[in-house]
Amino acid sequence: MRHCSVQVRGLLTREELDRYNALIEVGHYLESQNRYDLVYPVQKEIDILILPAIERLKEKSRQRDRDTEAYLRSKEELLAELDDEDE
Questions:
Q1: Which long-range contacts (CB under 8 A, 24 or more apart) does 77-85 make?
Q2: What's the pLDDT tens digit per position in 56-78?
Q3: CA 71 to CA 86: how far, in whole Å?
Q4: Each residue's pLDDT tens digit, 22-46
Q5: Record's superkingdom (predicted)?
Q6: How far apart are CA 34 and CA 28, in angstroms?
Q7: Neighbours of 8 (CB within 10 A)
Q8: Cα–Cα separations (whole angstroms), residue 13 to 22, 46, 56
């Protein structure tokens, strides 16, 4: 079974995380029984389950980029104002 990243797991809702943990447990059991034919659908279900958390992670990244851009823009404006005062 493939685990998702810690960042993605951190953005799962409680209900999603409970389901994720249960599916991982089922998948590990099936692997221990060498039932790899059944592991594939369980892994696919996990992949579908974590998609909303992946989107939340992407949105956090986009927001961080917007915040950084705004910060840099304000710094440039401040430097421009200081240059104008010096002249």
A1: none
A2: 999 999 999 999 999 999 999 89
A3: 23
A4: 999 999 999 999 999 999 999 999 9
A5: Bacteria
A6: 10
A7: 17
A8: 14, 14, 11
SS (H, E, C) the chain: CCCCCHHHHHCCCHHHHHHHHHHHHHHHHHHHCCCHHHHHHHHHHHHHHCHHHHHHHHHHHHHHHHHHHHHHHHHHHHHHHHHHHHC
Q: Residue 37 corresponds to which amino acid?
A: D
Q: Which residues contact 9 (CB under 8 A, 6 or more apart)?
A: 3, 17, 20, 53
pLDDT, tens digit, for every residue of 43-60? 999 999 999 999 999 999
